[in-house]
């Protein structure tokens, strides 16, 4: 299968819920960047995380060929964790085409809530 | 990082839930326009809010360079607040490229519900 | 404001939940086609509803200039109502550009669930 | 009506919840690939399912002309079922234009959660 997708993706609504209810790990509140690399070459990605009141942070990620990675964003820790309970946004840049979808499971109340959004693929960029 | 996104975005389903359950401010029912300005220049935005049975309203908003703003729509008050419990829609216009995503947290019942939608970026506009 | 959007939109997952919990009308389970007509001319729309095991049905709808309509799909009745509890899909065609977003509120269990999806705008059609 | 949509679609966040609460079949946790074939010819589809730690699997599916199919992904069984409780992703390829939307109903806790996402249509592919 050929590589499919785009090399730059954007999620504007990130928010790590600060607590959880229900059995771990399934019901631990979290956000995941779900990335598909359908192509024959590994994907090397840079995630740039933007905040409301501080400078951006950069993270590195790798997705093997013909694999998906569902990366929990609260588990990134290099250079430092994304703090819970604050709004953020992020840009994913890849050296090969990938597809990025963002999902949040919020179990702060007695029944979990879910959101999932296809990221914006920045083909239409206007520098 | 270069500016990324588009200069016009549309959300067709706005609705501010009229009441809440659970601790404030996390579980106060709300809608947020989540905007990323990844570029080097501040973004000056105009939000035009459309209703089912009255003329549109216009609001101004600013997003600093390399920052995200998660603007709660129920907190806009100039020229006047968007009323809760009615359907609305809105168009975001920016002087630099941004990305817009819309999220609703509805805590009117005992467990919260969440929706989040990437806005329509109006590149394909057909005047 | 100029007209914004596209003339053809598609939702592939329609499903009217067959019952509700909580006070009406806010918590009556429903689906809505949320349509924005930001332009200066009224929009005349045709909705074609597709099913799994029967022929399509067609409905007419009108959205005034500079207005949004959040049309509950379960309230369409000409030529006949869409039955609850079955999967369907629909295509919206408009004579002027509009934006279409689809939302479901499912209150069949004790707390409501919400989904909202920007429709597919069929610019990329390949006849 | 003309065929509408695209011939390749991608969902990056698949996850079959491993258990359910509430009456079957409505509240059985599931994911569905909702596909609309609005055109005059049947659609023959190939679904390629990608995992985090094993090679992809391929499934075949058919959508009649002018019909929608809401295929529960947990019911595919040739060559083998998709296992519950693990992250996956999938690519849909069709011989005629279709529209694909992905929905998850998660009833593992006392009230169901819903997500639905338009798939990425791979027009912008960069091989």
Structure report:
Chain A has 127 residues and is mainly beta. In chain A, 0% of the residues lie in helices and 54% in strands. Chain A has strands at residues 6-15, 30-37, 43-51, 57-63, 67-72, 87-106, 113-118, 120-121. In chain A, strands 1, 2, 3, 4, 5, 6, 7 and 8 form an 8-stranded antiparallel sheet that branches. At the A-D interface, strand 2, strand 5, strand 6 and strand 7 of A face strand 1, strand 3, strand 6 and strand 7 of D.
Q: How does the major sheet of chain A shape up?
A: 8 strands, antiparallel
Q: Greatest contact pair?
A: A-B, 38 and 37 residues
CATH superfamily of chain A: TM1070-like
Quickly count the helices of chain A: 0
Write a compact overview of the structure shown.
Chain A has no helices and 8 strands. Chain A has 127 residues and is mainly β. In chain A, strand 6 (87-106) and strand 7 (113-118) form a beta hairpin.
What attributes does this structure have?
homotetramer, 127 residues, mainly beta, Hypothetical Protein Tm1070, Chain: A, 8-stranded antiparallel sheet, 54% strand
Topology:
4 copies of one chain form a homotetramer.
Chain A: E1 6-15, E2 30-37, E3 43-51, E4 57-63, E5 67-72, E6 87-106, E7 113-118, E8 120-121
Antiparallel strand pairs in A: 1-6, 1-8, 2-5, 2-6, 3-4, 3-6, 6-7
